[in-house]
Amino acid sequence: MTSDSPTRARVLVVDDAATVRMYHNSLLNEAGFEVSEAANGLEAVEAALGTSFDLYVVDVNMPRMDGYACVEALRSATVGTAAPIVMISTEDRPGDADRAYRAGANLYLVKPVAGDRLVRVAAMLTADRSWAAEKDVAA
User: Fold this and answer.
1) Where are the alpha helices (DSSP H) in the chain?
2) Residue 85 CB-density burial (10 A; 0-12 exposed, 13-18 middle, 19+ buried)
3) How many CB atoms lie within 10 A of CB 129?
4) Sign of the torsion angle spanned by Cα atoms 105, 107, 112, 113
5) CA-to-CA distance for 136 and 53, rounded, in angstroms?
6) What pLDDT was estimated at residue 128?
7) Where would a tag sit more exposed on the chain, N or C end, judged by fewer CB atoms within 10 A?
8) Phi and psi for 119 in degrees, rounded to 5?
């Protein structure tokens, strides 16, 4: 997405907890992102096959297809996304982040993630600085 593009960056939020999806959706939507949701990794892969996203925000522990398998599938030749992927999880054991990076994630964050941090990370990874100008924040 270029800075002169009239479209908003598209984000897919993937989490089995409806409240987490709603929270992330609200934060990102308010910051100017176009947000879609998926309740598990399988739904995310299906969505990615039909829609191009600029960023994926993926939970680790989900039914049907966990976050690691989801990221691997998104990076596979079948889906082939090069879009940044942020994994967010309550898992904070040694090796959790390494496993996420090996699967193809660009960033691993541990819950709870402050709303402003999620928005800054999304803006940085999509090269969208418009939120900073609107909020009078240094990008």
Assistant:
1) 18-30, 41-50, 67-75, 96-103, 115-126, 130-135
2) buried
3) 13
4) negative
5) 27
6) 60
7) C
8) -65, -45
List pLDDT tens digits, range 111-134. Answer: 999 999 999 999 999 986 454 445
Q: Which two tokens mark 39?
A: 């309740």
Percent of the chain with pLDDT over 90: 80
Report cis status (omega within 30 of 0) of the bond before 84: no
Residue with the two structure tokens 């690691």: 68
Classify the C-alpha dihedral 116-105-61-43 as positive or negative. Answer: positive
Q: Which residue has the tokens 């079948």?
A: 78
Whether the bond into 63 is cis, omega within 30 of 0: no
Return d(Cα 61, Cα 14) in angstroms, integer.
10
pTM score:
0.87
d(CA 67, CA 33): 22
